[in-house]
Design brief:
It contains 15 helices and 22 strands. With 494 residues, it is an alpha/beta fold. The strands form 5 sheets. Strands 1, 2, 3, 4, 5, 6 and 16 form a 7-stranded mixed β-sheet that branches. The protein binds flavin-adenine dinucleotide and NADPH dihydro-nicotinamide-adenine-dinucleotide phosphate.
Length: 494
């Protein structure tokens, strides 16, 4: 098999397959470093026919439209709170979301960002081809342009193809249900919605749909937010339930059918017995599958993990073929998050063309779940920390608080719904293994902690720095009650 050290000449120094978060970042950084770069990006329409432009999942059907809809929902909460803060003439009951207007404005923004990516690639000298790319041989990529079969060669190839929503093997799933690929551009109001799945996508979407006024149910197969601290996941769910989201726990769908009036009949089974219920919209949020099968990986000799369809790589993001790399959601073991895809793309480009020896590190990645009560975390959940160092070696500090933002609200006068948990390793001077925050602006609160955890911050370091007052983030500095000590974690006073 050819290697990049071959004397062969190639049309491009780098070919990137996929113009999403990781691919665009890698292509731009390689262009900056003077490499001749080609980037392919093509979106196969969803079973419902939804398609979009350059930029990948995050910009078009992920983080960006999701966060804008989350914001629209939060504004509803602010309208409800307004009279408690002295506002007159604001009537929550009269306020109603105009779904079409929201979708239109979100889509306008998304299109603007997607268009901007084209300009950015151009400004870095990257050639962009809107076509599906697949391997012909390890250095040759095949694609179709205006009906014509073409090929192009590259010294290095980066697979950054991301993934698409997984449809469960349930009759009617593809025919009658939508996914996050369709929701943010849905032209008609979703009406009564069922969200199937209980992780990031399902809970975030169910959260904003409920707050926007739609009758929303989440069907949970097992637990909420697998992989997250389960005590906090339960608090996230409890808050949503209190605020109107319905949950059908330990229940799974077995069939979807459509009635003549357009309603979807969902048959399900589980703890609630065999059930049948009608919905206007069913959102499947049952995970994502990388679109690696379309790449003809066999032609390049690249190995794929058969179960996950993800691609195993070494510490440099190289696949088993040394000059073919994989970054982002398609990489086995990488978190499915935009910032990890971006950073690994940049680091790879600098290794290939900038003389850098840096490797991507996937520990201490902060993340936030944008549910109505937001949850931000970094490091390990309590249960995982106990698995790693042993239960008796873990000490957990925790505290609940009432966010000042909500303190005088009649609508949201829920005591102690904010919560902080600091998970520490007793054997290493209470080095922080996990930091968890539940409350307003969770992403903003948790984002800045990444360097501290990477540098081995200890519990006493948190106490010895001065926080900002009054804000929710200062609870991380002030938390002092040891979980299980018998002392109430509820915060008193200012
Ligand atoms: P993608 O961004 O998916 O890009 C891959 C691109 O390659 C796509 O455009 C695809 O069409 C194209 N492609 C695939 N195969 C080929 C081919 N053969 N030829 C040409 N082009 C091809 N992450 C966060 O960090 N924060 C969030 O708040 C967040 N919210 C999310 C909300 C939702 C609803 C979803 C679904 C995801 C969210 N994510 C979030 C995850 C984030 O969007 C992904 O982790 C990120 O986009 C992955 O980047 P990527 O480059 O690996 O792939
Ligand atoms: P996940 O893989 O995280 O979760 C899938 C969910 O669907 C689980 O609750 C799972 O249940 C359930 N499920 C799977 N199959 C079935 C089935 N056949 N029937 C019923 N339920 C089923 O996927 P998501 O789509 O939520 O998210 C994908 C990734 O996107 C995340 O891992 C995350 O990295 C990224 N993302 C990030 C966001 C952020 O940063 N805020 C927001 C949204 C997405 P079970 O636990 O029982 O397996």
């Amino acid at each position: 098999m050819a290697t990049p050290s071959d004397s062969g000449t190639y049309e491009y120094d780098l070919i990137v397959i996929g113009g999403g978060s990781g691919g665009v970042a890698c292509a731009k950084a390689a262009g900056d470093a003077g490499a001749k770069v080609l980037c392919f990006d093509y979106v196969t329409p969803s079973p419902r026919g939804t398609s979009w432009g350059l930029g990948g999942t995050c910009v078009n059907v992920g983080c960006i439209p999701k966060k804008l809809m989350h914001r629209a929902a939060a504004i509803g909460g602010d309208i409800a709170d307004a009279p408690s803060f002295g506002w007159e003439g604001v009537d929550r009951k009269a306020a109603k979301i105009n779904w079409s207007e929201l979708v239109q404005r979100v889509q306008n923004h998304v299109r603007k960002l997607s268009f901007g990516y084209r300009g950015e690639l151009r400004s870095k000298g990257v050639t962009y081809i809107p076509a599906i790319a697949s391997f012909k041989d390890p250095h040759t990529i095949a694609y179709k342009q205006r009906g014509e079969d073409k090929t192009v060669t590259g010294k290095y190839i980066v697979i950054a193809c991301g993934g698409r929503p997984t449809y469960p093997d349930v009759p009617g799933a593809k025919e009658y249900c939508i996914t996050s690929d369709d929701l943010f551009s849905l032209s008609t109001e979703p009406g009564k919605v069922l969200c199937v799945g209980a992780s990031y996508v399902s809970l975030e979407c169910a959260g904003f749909l409920t707050e926007l006024g739609f009758d929303t149910t989440v069907m949970v197969r097992s637990i909420l937010l697998r992989g997250f601290d389960q005590e906090i996941a339960e608090k996230v769910g409890a808050y949503m339930e209190e605020h109107g989201t319905k949950f059908q726990k330990e229940q799974t769908p077995v069939a979807f059918a459509k009635k003549e009036d357009g309603k979807i009949i969902v048959k399900s089974t589980g703890k609630l017995g065999d059930k049948e219920e009608e919905f206007d919209t069913v959102l499947l949020a049952t995970g994502r599958t990388p679109v690696t099968e379309a790449l003809n990986l066999e032609a390049a000799g690249v190995k794929m993990d058969a179960r996950t369809k993800k691609i195993p790589v070494d510490k440099t993001a190289a696949t088993n073929v040394p000059f073919i790399y994989c970054i982002g959601d398609a990489q086995l073991g990488a978190p499915e998050l935009t910032p990890t895809a971006i950073l690994s793309g940049k680091i790879l480009a600098k290794r290939l063309f900038g003389g850098s020896l840096e490797e991507m590190v996937y520990t201490d990645v902060p993340t936030a779940v944008f549910t109505p009560l937001e949850y931000g975390s970094i490091g390990l959940p309590e249960e995982k920390a106990k698995d790693v160092v042993g239960e008796s070696n873990v000490v957990v500090y925790h505290g609940s608080f009432t966010p000042l933002e909500w303190a005088i609200s009649d609508e949201r006068s829920h005591e102690g719904e904010g919560y902080v948990k600091v998970v520490c390793d007793k054997t290493r001077e209470e080095t922080v293994m996990g930091l968890h925050y539940l409350g307003p602006n969770a992403a903003e609160v948790i984002n800045g902690w990444a360097p501290s955890l990477r540098l081995g911050v200890r519990k006493r370091d948190l106490e010895r720095v001065v926080g900002i007052h009054p804000c929710c983030a200062e609870e991380i500095n002030n938390v002092s009650v040891i979980k299980g000590s018998g002392v109430s974690e509820a915060k008193g006073g200012c």
